[in-house]
TrEMBL record:
It comes from Paenibacillus spongiae. This is Glucose PTS transporter subunit IIA. It is found in: Cell membrane. Residues 486-590 form the PTS EIIA type-1 domain. PROSITE patterns: PTS_EIIA_TYPE_1, PTS_EIIB_TYPE_1, PTS_EIIC_TYPE_1. Keywords: Cell membrane, Kinase, Membrane, Phosphotransferase system, Sugar transport, Transferase, Transmembrane, Transmembrane helix, Transport. Residues 1-373 form the PTS EIIC type-1 domain.
Amino acid sequence: MNVMGQLQQLGRSLMLPMIVLPAAAIFLSLSGLPWESFGMPGMPGHLQTAGYALFAFLPYLFAFGVAMGMTGNAISAGLAALAGMFIYTSIIGASRYELEPTVLTGAMIGYVTSLFNERYKSIKLPEYIQFFGGPRFVPLIVSFFAAFWGILMVEIAPNIRDLMVELGNIVSSGGGFGVFLFGFVLRILVVFGLHHLVSHVFWFQVGGYELSDGSMVFGDLPRFFAGDPTAGAFMAGLYPTMMFALPAIAFAIIHEAREDLKPKIRVTFMSAALASFLTGVTEPIEFAFLFVAPYLFVVHALLSGVIMWITYELGIRHGFSFSAGAIDYLINEHLATRGWLLLPIGIVFGMIYYFLFRWAIRRFRIPTPGREEGSQLDEWAGDIPYRAPLILQAIGGKENIQQMEACITRLRLKVASDKLIDTNALKNLGAAGVIRLGGGNVQIVFGTYSELIREEMDKAIRRDLSRVLFSSPMQGRMIPLSEVPDPIFAGKLVGDGVAFLPDKGELVSPVNGKVVHLYPTLHAIGIRTPEGLDVLLHIGIDTSQMKGAGFTAVVEEGDQVKPGQLLIRFDLQRVRAGSKSLATPMVITNSDRVSSWSFAPFKSVKRGQASVMSVVLKERSSGGDTE
């Protein structure tokens, strides 16, 4: 795996321990309720203990989470990392210095564990000690490493705490400009999915705060929840961006959409705006303009940094457990300093973003969703089980996937060849963007559906059903068979499938198979797949009366064909003039063989584009095709 691949996997792994923090924030928020009035005076103490416990054990959670994330959820690696943390903590705890494990230590032990797991999980030892070989060797070597690291930390202990506090002082000396740089870099790294590498340093390491019992907590986030009035500088400024600025971009995209596409775009981007406002999940909106106007994304990153600078200079301090959305804002407001100022700041910058993006979209003719057919970010949550096989095909099939994980907004893949990935097909299937990091490392942004998509793809791979995948036989627009202006095809009397309205006069094969029938008038062709499906491709409606005029076949009956191979050329204008309709059905004539169907969205497609239709075959009790 190359460096970028390692970094993107590490970034995703650092997010795993974060999923427990909302619970801590809720416990601490609930502890402020008047429990004595409810006859439960001890409840605040219990809730505070529950909340602070998660922060106290955060280093262990990071060790476990990073080890699991970097090894593809290898349980032995996760347990080895925990064992290493127990050993390390015990050694430093028994020293004469007041040392405590930090998040950085946990992440490091988790990462080192993943390296040891990759190197030694298949190690073979002499037969008489092979019991300690293979995966059992990993916790053994991690234990020795943790012991060594703990002893080393004890030896250099006098400098550790002072160094962490001094680091916080150095960062704080940068003032508003330092916070501005943090905000700018954080947004830029979102593009590569590496923003967690920067945020976690500031949120969990920089700066120290001494609690009433003499113990220390480090990092902007734990210090904020521990009651440090100076904490929250690296979190507060994100609230106006996520609660107001990004939703404003969504509204600008909606209002600049074409009138005929505006209803669909409104549904999609209102949902994205609400997700950003409530939970701080911003990628679905950001990736809607990132690839078509990267310079606009740089402007957005600069403005995000400016917002953080302003909130810092105004003395606003606020924090969050998950992300800077309205839910975290309300839950944690009781710990904030001048947190109410974030709302008017957000409204002002929301208006700036809205008018700036509307002007830029119109002035530079930026093809944001809704400005053209085939817009990204479709709304299709209930359709995920049916589209997952199509997404799998667009990625290059299960044979191309070496590793597959999902974080909050994107699939993170390691593929054998990223050349097999059909970017246009993935965008048709709902992807906001495809990021190639080199070395086979690819990220596909599906928004908050990413984890559901990964689960359904896993199911599709494990089931290993007899499935036939169809590519687009032409460039144009895919339509439901019911829209074909012919009662025979629309009524599915010939067979079930889809249809296409061509933009170019070329018909290509949608599947692997054999040409079993080429009509004398060359307007239609039949292909039989290796699985025994008979596929009919019929160019236009009532085109048999043209008696072959305007059609040229480049294959013959008996030829073997593969997806994307040219079958027939036709004169598009001549066929339009001489036929009832250009609608070109692609139907399976023996559709009784099919158990279930999956269709991509009915929108623009390219010739040979993967993943327009997928069918699962019925299980046959015996035998196969006799032909």
